[in-house]
Amino acid sequence: MTVDIIIPVYKPGEEFATLLTKLHQMSDHIGKVILANTEKPYWEQFEREHPKESCYPELSVFHVTAQEFDHGGTRREAIERSKAKVFVCMTQDAVPADTELIENLVKALEAKADIAAAYARQLPKADAGVIECYTRAFNYPETGYVRYAKDLSTHGIKTFFCSNVCAAYKRSVYDEMGGFATQAIFNEDMIYAGNCIRKGYGIAYAADARVYHSHQYSGRQQYHRNFDLGVSQAEHPEVFEGVPSESEGKKLVKQTAAYLVKKGKGYLIPKLIWQSGCKYLGYRAGKGYQRSSHKSILKKTGNKAYFQRKWEKEKTVCAE
């Protein structure tokens, strides 16, 4: 089976060139690589600087503006350009760890008829700090599994976990479910997975499908990111209402602190507390964003364009 790859791209550089090279090495499993590029001049610059990578025959590129880009809507537009029975969503900073990535994702996806999506294991990059490395190990263990609605009482919000950093989807289920949310500030993957779970489908974690992907976010960046996460949950109560989220966060903090002490790195605990506090405060503010003024929201979000589009549409509806 060949699959199509869907990747939103913004200001692509060396890391993305490496990703394309890795995908090209797996071309036996890949039909098209469909790129949703934000702002055409950035892609034209990439073409000049990386002529070899940007001319791979399987590449298909279309362009949107920064104002038009939407985590759900732009991916939907890219998927509409695919006819493959299975497609894989990736981000431009996810680098395959080996040439079996796509093969192992499809294997996990096809293991059972009722699996809707399968997501890859994320390994920390070489420059990742101790806290980030442990976070990756906590969220992406060595053993794979499949989660269903029956797991909600045990695993809570993690039952819905799925990451478009690298995840494979059955097109038939995607079409049946109506695809990704048309408008999504963030978290379009978990919104989709949550809807699938509630419809009786399973979400697989493919531990043997591996990509290198990690970040070194500041406390401020963590706040903005988790504010948008909270907004995404507030806007989709049909998925997230009644599903506990905070317990997983507390568990991660406690286990990370214990790990730091065990490894003789207790001096990093204040940093852990600071970052965790920023995450929690951002998340809670996002969950209650509707009580905030427009000015306040624009200070808290990491995606101002999303709210500007949203408010513009609301004005149009009110005018009609």
CATH topology of the largest domain: Spore Coat Polysaccharide Biosynthesis Protein SpsA, Chain A
Rg, nearest Å: 19 Å
Q: In oligomeric terms, what are we looking at?
A: single chain
On the 0-100 scale, what is the average pLDDT? 94
What's the architecture of the largest domain, going by CATH? Alpha-Beta Complex
DSSP strand tally:
9
What share of residues is helical?
Answer: 40-55%
Main beta sheet strand tally, sense and closure: 9 strands, mixed
Give the class from helix and strand content and strand pairing: alpha/beta
Spatial shape: globular
What CATH first level of the largest domain would be assigned?
Alpha Beta
The separation of the N and C termini measures 48 Å
| SSE string | EHEHHEHEEHEHEHEHHEHHHHHH
Question: How much of the polypeptide forms β-strand, as a percent range?
Answer: 15-25%
Written account of the structure:
The chain is of the alpha/beta class and 320 residues long. The chain folds into two domains: 3-212, Spore Coat Polysaccharide Biosynthesis Protein SpsA, Chain A (Alpha-Beta Complex); 219-319, no CATH class. It has helices at 14-24, 40-49, 51-54, 73-79, 101-109, 130-139, 152-155, 171-177, 188-198, 219-234, 237-240, 246-262, 269-287, 294-300, 304-319, and strands spanning 3-10, 30-38, 59-64, 86-90, 95-96, 115-123, 145-147, 166-170, 202-212. Strands 1, 2, 3, 4, 5, 6, 7, 8 and 9 form a nine-stranded mixed β-sheet that branches. Strand 1 (3-10), helix 1 and strand 2 form a beta-alpha-beta unit. The longest helix has 19 residues, at 269-287.
